[in-house]
Amino acid sequence: MTFIPRRTALMALGAMAAASIAGNALAQQQVTLRLHQMLPAQATIPARALVPWAQKVEAESGGKIKVQLFNAMALGGAPPQLFDQARDGVVDLTWTVLGYTPGRFNKSEVFELPFMSGSAEESSRAFQEYVEKFAADEFREVKLIAVHTHGPGLFHTKTPVTGLESLRGMKVRGGSRVINNMLTKLGATPVGMPVPAVTDALSKGTIDGTTIPWEVTPSLKVTELVKNHTTFAGKQGLYTQTFAFSMNRASYDKLPADLKAVIDKNSGIETAALFGRAMDEGDKVGREIAEKAKNNIVALDIAETQRWRRTAATVETDWINEMKGKNIDGTKLLSEARALIAKYQR
Q1: What pTM was computed for the model?
Q2: Where does residue 27 rank: exposed (0-12), middle (13-18), buried (19+ CB within 10 A)?
């Protein structure tokens, strides 16, 4: 047996204790954030926005933050419950469509009105600034990372939509109450459902077509299920949907200051732009797939597009009147939204 002097033994024990304390401190500094969203992993937002965002946060935190991404509602619930999952702390982070909870984000709905915007990056910057200035109270229950929009909305249908008349009576999926009202005005029969349900609804014939941007068509196999796509003249799409990337307030509040700073740095307008760019890039990919499949892409001319604009314009009036009933100045908000979109338009 080797004899170890008492002083040496005490020093060794002290070193072990210090190492243990340091190890525990490091473990306490490391935070795992669970991020839940509705789409398959290969879809545009998880692949081109959420994963890059998570990697950036992990790198800038020096590995102290780890983000676990759960796709396709892997943690349970339905897409309309995602915002509340972040609010209630069921998970730490969620990404979702605001229109899935109608009547909740009233002031934010203005960006869903017909022919409001085109480029997703431009309108996402505008939407982020708009929310910060005019609708921050709608997100007071969470730590808002960013809001954004998708690119130009269009039709994907089993039979071609070549004008207003050909849409009449067609059962078309809409993603929000504002969009469903627009579809009604245009003569279609709106069928509301979250976007993950579109594939099954098209394959079973529950719907004749859907309103979605190009970017989500690959992950939903839309270009295989329908062969017709209808676009509109001009920079603006038929409609736009809005999205929120949110964090549980308590999950954020309990972070140490240095990790809060990392989250703050990766929140706001540049993060909104990141998500918008991903949508714009995804639109190019989705359209290319339809072109390679030799699908029928209908491009409505300026005159026909103007007919759609005139018919859909009453959706604005409806929304303004609804907001008036809620003591919200819809006319002012619509003007502010349009000014911000123009500000960021290249």
Answers
A1: 0.91
A2: exposed
